[in-house]
Amino acid sequence: xxxxxxxxxxxxxxxxxxxxxxxxxxxxxxxxxxxxxxxxxxxxxxxxxxxxxxxxxxxxxxxxxxxxxxxxxxxxxxxxxxxxxxxxxxxxxxxxxxxxxxxxxxxxxxxxxxxxxxxxxxxxxxxxxxxxxxxxxxxxxxxxxxxxxxxxxxxxxxxxxxxxxxxxxxxxxxxxxxxxxxxxxxxxxxxxxxxxxxxxxxxxxxxxxxxxxxxxxxxxxxxxxxxxxxxxxxxxxxxxxxxxxxxxxxxxxxxxxxxxxxxxxxxxxxxxxxxxxxxxxxxxxxxxxxxxxxxxxxxxxxxxxxxxxxx
Amino acid sequence: xxxxxxxxxxxxxxxxxxxxxxxxxxxxxxxxxxxxxxxxxxxxxxxxxxxxxxxxxxxxxxxxxxxxxxxxxxxxxxxxxxxxxxxxxxxxxxxxxxxxxxxxxxxxxxxxxxxxxxxxxxxxxxxxxxxxxxxxxxxxxxxxxxxxxxxxxxxxxxxxxxxxxxxxxxxxxxxxxxxxxxxxxxxxxxxxxxxxxxxxxxxxxxxxxxxxxxxxxxxxxxxxxxxxxxxxxxxxxxxxxxxxxxxxxxxxxxxxxxxxxxxxxxxxxxxxxxxxxxxxxxxxxxxxxxxxxxxxxxxxxxxxxxxxxxxxxxxxxxxxxxxxxxxxxxxxxxxxxxxxxxxxxxxxxxxxxxxxxxxxxxxx
Lengths: 311, 364
Known about the structure:
Chain A has about 300 residues and is mainly α. Helices cover about 75% and strands about 0% of the residues of chain A.
């Protein structure tokens, strides 16, 4: 047990939490923005995957990681717009359209990579590089804290800055008010002159862009290449974090960070004498427990409201 | 709304259809026009894994070129729900003489299909069908199925033996003070655990302690296709003092080579010669050797034997070190990193396994 404690308190573990949580955080904020705009973005997984693929390919061929990241994010934002268009213009069910988007992304990325590189596995044969890490002169030399914070990828910093940024956007800006109003009750929003569709399109583009940044981190930060289906369900875990976090920025932040910590813990504990099947269930078991708690709390709150109303 | 939902469903369905039907190809050849025996390789996954399936494909491609076969490949993708219908379709189409497939996950499909198509031949690699016919499959005792399995535990044994000799001899530059080594298997299934069991036995026989072998499975949604998680696990192992990490996890292993570069440590490759398949020189340099599992060679040999009508159907063929189906890469890079004394010791250990004087434990 003491070795478990050693692991949890080590700087290597804390640094790993930040790394592992990065894609969860960004994708979860993407899911949150879409959800608050009134359109569920089930396509997070596909948007991440497309961005990861585009990023690595563009960076590999242009030689510029910045160009790769920008193109990756742009493609994911376009897919967000596509989802919005399917929902708003054609009246498609957002869940089903999102699933279709994920299927499309899985097939299209593999096909694109095969077309360019004649490799069905991924872009590991293409040198594409990673986004820069942030060195912190001064902090670097502080024990533990320096090891944890220094040398993290730029995108990790952006992921953590995204929490206050999204909170500010939601509660301090005109766009945020409009977004939430549109998501709550589009008819009411329209009646006071808010351009409902335009707000929803913008929200879904932003949602896709955030998922795109998460995807770019996978192929240009975590590792330096794209592998087919490399998102490996991260988009869906992020979606769970959106609901677990009660659709509020800081709640989502904590939920996504919790999932990251659970996975990092599973990684660090894996080499100890704990059955591997048990360890690899940690993130999933935690997801289920957390969702059950969320549902239970909501039910209780719901019951309370009914009682209050009947009185 | 209702209308929109069904439209979207149709789109999703069409996408799924294109995804799985894409590799079917244009085949209207009811009989072999060229008179060549036709092999159809059905892959429950995809090519491009740089190891297992790619090796099978290479071997059969060579058989096509050298031995006068016709080869067709069907990739079923990673969605398991499409595997069973995929195999049924592949077997029902009369465009093949030999259907080749691999991994333990397809044994039941082959066991079901072989009795339904008694005039076709089936080759199953890396797992045996249930030849007894007592468990619901193989109602004809699978007398038209040739299975070949590999003694990957022997390859694992050599990896473990070499790993211990390298750390005990302080031969790895930059990692002289470290005693531990890591193994990163994809999932806990017998055929993968067979590598691990062999590794531990070899490590012990070379004089190491089992507690110095760190083992961690990738697991999760894509155990053989999640390089980010592979990198995280490898980084953790190097952090816990592993001098080298041996990934046995397909594409997840690509993360290991990256983390080895940043940690300044070492790796072993698996299945294929990964010094050759990697492109980045810094990553190549971390690969001491690769433990080969020559699926392709075994299939090529099967093709040779089948031409001579000497391939044994209705039975399992188990091949290992003695058949050159399992082995390690002995190239210049290996010679540069591994001292002469260790290389000789490793060769001797391999000879002992080959001659049978050392029996390697197995997870199968």
